[in-house]
Here is the input.
Amino acid sequence: MRRTDEDEIETVRGPARADTDLPAGPPTALLVLGHGAGGAVDAPDLVALRDAAVAAGLAVVRVTQPYRVAGRRAPAPAGHLDEAWTDVLAAVRGRHPTVPAVLVGGRSSGARVACRTAVAVGAAGVVALAFPEHPPGRPERSRAGELATGLPTLVVNGDRDPFGIPAPTAAVQVVRRPGETHDLRRDPTGTAAVVVDWLRGRGWAR
Here is the structure.
C-alpha cells in the first residue's frame, strides 16, 4: 500500500498542509494540487488524479490552504490564497530539487490559484479541474483571463457545470466530461485518465 506523508508548511498566511505521495521510482514530474473553496484534498477527483498520476510516475502533493487548516470553511481572499500557495510551492520545490518538471493545478478555486501563480512559481504546465469560468448565472463575470498563462494547460469540466466552461485557446485544451457537474463525482477515474493521457502526451508521465 502506498503511504501518504502529511506535514505542515509555514506560509505568510499561517500553516498549510501538504499530503505527499511518491511513485515507486524516480518521479517523472511533480504535480501540486489545490482544493476547492469549501472543499478539501480528499475530493473524489483529486484523489483519483493522485492515484492515477502516482501510478504513472509522478510525485503528487495535495495542498490544504491555511484557512482550511485553521478550521474555517469560508475561503480567504484571493491574494492570501496566492501568497500561501507560492510559499508552499517554494518549500515543495526545495524538497524535490531533481524533478524534471513542476506542474500545478487543482479543482475550482484551487485551479484558479494555480493559474494565477503558475508563471511566478516556474510551473511547466497547469491542470485545471472544474475551472469556474464564471459565478453561476453570471456569464458576464468571466474568469477566462486567469487561464491565459501561456503555459500548456488542461481544463477538465463537466458539461453540466453551472459555473460554465471556458473556451479552448492555442495553449488551453478543454475537455468536457459528459453528465458531470461542478463536483466531477460521477466518474472521477475517467477524469483522472483524461489528465494522465494529457501528461503522458507531453512527456510528464510514464
